[in-house]
Design a protein that fits this description.
Number of strands of chain B: 6
Helix content of chain A: 40-55%
Helix content of chain B: 25-40%
CATH class of chain A: Alpha Beta
Order of helices and strands of chain B: HEEHHEEEE
Distance between the termini of chain A: 15 Å
Strand content of chain B: 15-25%
Shape of chain B: globular
Strand order of the largest sheet of chain A: 2-1-3-4-5
Largest sheet of chain B: 6 strands, antiparallel
Oligomer: heterodimer
Shape of chain A: globular
Number of helices of chain B: 3
CATH architecture of chain A: 3-Layer(aba) Sandwich
Number of strands of chain A: 5
Chain lengths: ~130, ~150
C-alpha cells in the first residue's frame, strides 16, 4: 500500500529535503502533497485525502499548533495522523503538541531513519521497504 | 556563561546539524572568518534569554551545502535556494544551540531571513562569534543576547 503524504512547512527547501528523505528511506510513498502553512494545508485537506501529515510548527499565516488544533476539532479530518517535525526540541513543546492531537514528534536535525521509524510507528505498519 | 563555553556549544551544534542533515562536517576548529562574497542569514528569538542568531559563509560554501541538502548538483542550485537552505541551517543551528544553553527552556524562533547587507555581527552589544572550517570554505555562527531591562524602583 502506497501512503499519501502531506508535508507542511514554509521552507520549500525543507519540504524538498523531507520528500527526498522519504523516497530514499524506502518509505512506501504514493502521492506527496505540499503546503506552505497550516491554512494551505487545511484548504488542501478539504479536497484531498491523505494518510499522514508531517508539519513544522513555526510558520506564517497559520502555525503548526493552530493547524493541529484545527485538525483535531474537525470530525472529517481528526483521524489523519500528524507528526510534528520541528527545531523546537523542548520536552514541554513535545508534550503540548501531543496533547493537542499530534501522534508523533521528530526533532530537527534528524536522521532519515528516525523519520521513517516515526512514520512506521504512527501508521502502524511493519516496514517492508528495505 | 563564558565565551569559551558558548564557542564549544556552537561547535557541538554545528557538528550535529551539519553531519545529520547536510552530509558534511566540521573539518577544522577555530578558523579565520571569511571575507569576500558572503551568504548571511539571521533570526531573532524570544525567551530567556532573547536575542539574535546568525550564520555567515562564503557564497560558494553556501551553494555546496544547499546542493548537498537538496540532492542537486552545485550548478543546479539557484541563489534563492542557497539562501533558503542557509536560512534553514540558521534555524536548526539556533534550535540546537539554545537547547544546549538552556535545556528545557521554551524559546520562540522567528522566521530566519537572508541579510543581503551582510551586517557585521560585532555591531551588536554582547555578541559572540565562532568560525570553523568545512571541507570547502568556512562558516561563522554568531549570537547576540539581549540584556534584561533593568528594574526601576
Amino acid at each position: 500500500m502506497a501512503f499519501t503524504v502531506l508535508i507542511v512547512d514554509d521552507s520549500p527547501a525543507m519540504r524538498s529535503f523531507v520528500k527526498r528523505v522519504l523516497e530514499l528511506s524506502g518509505f512506501d510513498m504514493g502521492v506527496c502533497h505540499e503546503a506552505g502553512n497550516g491554512q494551505e494545508a487545511l484548504d488542501l485537506l478539504s479536497k484531498e485525502w491523505v494518510d499522514v501529515v508531517l508539519t513544522d510548527i513555526n510558520m506564517p499565516v497559520m502555525n503548526g499548533q493552530e493547524f493541529v488544533q484545527n485538525l483535531a476539532a474537525d470530525e472529517s479530518l481528526h483521524a489523519i495522523p500528524v507528526i510534528v517535525v520541528s527545531t523546537d526540541r523542548t520536552e514541554d513543546r513535545v508534550r503540548q503538541m501531543i496533547a493537542l492531537g499530534a501522534k508523533g514528534y521528530v526533532k530537527k536535525p534528524f536522521q532519515p531513519e528516525e523519520l521513517r521509524e516515526e512514520l512506521e510507528k504512527v501508521l502502524g505498519v511493519a516496514y517492508a521497504g528495505n | 556563561m563564558q565565551g569559551t563555553d558558548l564557542q564549544r556549544i556552537f561547535l557541538e551544534s554545528a557538528s550535529e546539524v551539519l553531519e545529520t542533515m547536510f552530509f558534511t562536517g566540521v573539518a577544522e576548529e577555530n578558523s579565520e572568518e571569511a571575507s569576500g562574497t558572503l551568504l548571511c542569514a539571521e533570526l531573532s528569538f524570544r525567551g530567556r534569554p532573547s536575542g539574535r542568531f546568525g550564520v555567515r559563509t562564503p557564497l560558494a560554501t553556501g551553494r555546496m551545502i544547499a546542493a548537498s541538502f537538496l540532492g542537486l548538483d552545485e550548478s543546479e542550485v539557484s541563489d534563492a535556494q542557497a539562501g533558503e537552505v542557509t536560512c534553514e541551517l540558521t534555524n536548526m543551528f539556533c534550535g540546537s544551540v539554545l537547547s544546549r544553553i538552556e535545556a528545557g527552556a521554551r524559546f520562540e524562533l522567528m522566521h530566519p531571513e537572508v541579510d543581503p547587507a551582510n551586517t557585521d555581527w560585532r555591531q551588536y552589544p554582547d555578541s559572540i562569534g565562532y568560525t570553523f572550517g568545512l571541507e570547502e570554505g568556512t562558516m561563522t555562527l554568531w549570537m547576540a543576547l539581549e540584556k534584561a531591562p533593568a528594574l526601576v524602583a
